[in-house]
Design a protein that fits this description.
- This protein has nine helices and 13 strands.
- It has 313 residues and is an alpha/beta fold.
- It has a five-stranded mixed beta sheet, with helices on both faces. The chain has a four-stranded mixed beta sheet with strand order 8-12-7-11.
- Strand 1 and strand 2 form a beta hairpin.
- Helix 1 packs across helix 2, helix 1 crosses helix 3 and helix 2 crosses helix 3.
- The longest helix has 24 residues.
- The protein is globular.
Length: 313
């Protein structure tokens, strides 16, 4: 085992592969060829004298040795970045928290929390990124995020099977809603009966290989008619506003709905619950991370009070 010849480039590539989950995605993110990424990973594994990534059909994940190396690599890379900033005369990053969020959380909850932090804690900087739950979990494990807002659906399993388990807190748990064109017959009341969803046209998101289609009401006893597919939730809502179909949305998106859309609860049959989770690695958080987490919890409570369909607390 000899880490003396491991380069910073190899460490950065190792972190990117851990975050992205595949060599191909890491190569695209870094602007490298896949073979260049493979060479850097081979070099760092030679230096470690161990396999750091478990190669699987669905991508890669850190081995036990990989988690040790990633923990140390993150410290090294953060220190190098801090040194570069200091030499450039830029403000330090000691008061920075790295936050990741789902697109739907970024629509209402994250802006509210960050606006509150700007007023109460102007010296604290929050930087982050939007992503899906699997990518955000990988970034937490890789040490490039301090906190992440994740989605969870029944049966509410942990977001990954890695050890140690992530520290998770449920910020909200609400029933899934439907976004309906304001001129649609289903928009006339204050809720929609599940039986009336038969024969509707749907605007779905990418299923990413899952059995269920995102955007289609779960458990329909018919093959749904998919009118359009879109990855971005705002695009789906504007397609709804144009009268082109229905789509499912978290209740938290109600304040962000564009004109021409009603977001309504569904009655009949079991409620389709969705949780918004705040996740971090299990070690004790820094004071800055604790303050950001508190702001997110407050914003989540405020969003509950804004939602007329939310159950009383």
């Amino acid at each position: 085992m000899d880490f003396t010849d491991v380069s910073l480039t190899a460490l950065r590539v190792f972190r990117a592969v851990s975050e992205q989950g595949t060599f191909t995605a890491a190569a695209a993110t870094l602007g490298y060829t896949q073979s260049a990424v493979s060479r850097q990973i081979a070099a760092i594994e030679r230096g470690a004298g161990a396999e750091l990534l478990e190669r699987r059909r669905d991508g890669v994940r850190l081995t036990a040795a990989g988690r040790i190396v990633m923990r140390r690599a993150t410290i090294v890379l953060d220190e190098i970045d801090a040194t570069a900033r200091e030499l450039s005369g830029l403000p330090g990053q000691s008061g920075t928290v790295r936050l990741g969020w789902l697109p739907t959380a970024g629509a209402v909850l994250v802006p509210r929390a960050l606006a509150a932090l700007r007023r109460s804690d102007p010296g604290l900087t929050v930087v982050g990124r939007e992503g899906g739950t699997p990518a955000l979990v990988r970034a937490l494990r890789a040490g490039s995020l301090d906190l992440a807002l994740l989605a969870s659906a029944p049966p509410f399993r942990p977001p990954d099977t890695e050890s140690p388990a992530l520290a998770l807190q449920t910020l909200t748990e609400r029933a899934l809603c439907l976004a309906v064109p304001a001129a649609h017959p289903l928009a006339r009341g204050d809720c929609i009966d599940v039986a009336d969803l038969r024969g509707q046209r749907w605007i779905a998101g990418s299923s990413s290989g899952e059995d269920r289609l995102m955007g289609v009401w779960p458990g329909l006893d018919e093959r749904p008619e998919i009118a359009h597919t879109a990855r971005d939730w705002l695009a789906k809502l504007h397609l709804v506003a144009a009268g082109l179909g229905l789509t499912t949305v978290p209740a938290a998106l109600r304040p962000a709905a564009p004109p021409g859309v009603r977001i309504l609860p569904v009655r009949g049959g079991p409620q389709e619950q969705r949780r918004l989770l705040l996740a971090r690695l299990p070690q004790p958080p820094s004071e800055q991370v604790t303050r950001v987490a508190a702001a997110l919890r407050t914003a989540a409570l405020d969003s509950e009070s804004d939602d007329p369909s939310a159950p009383p607390s």
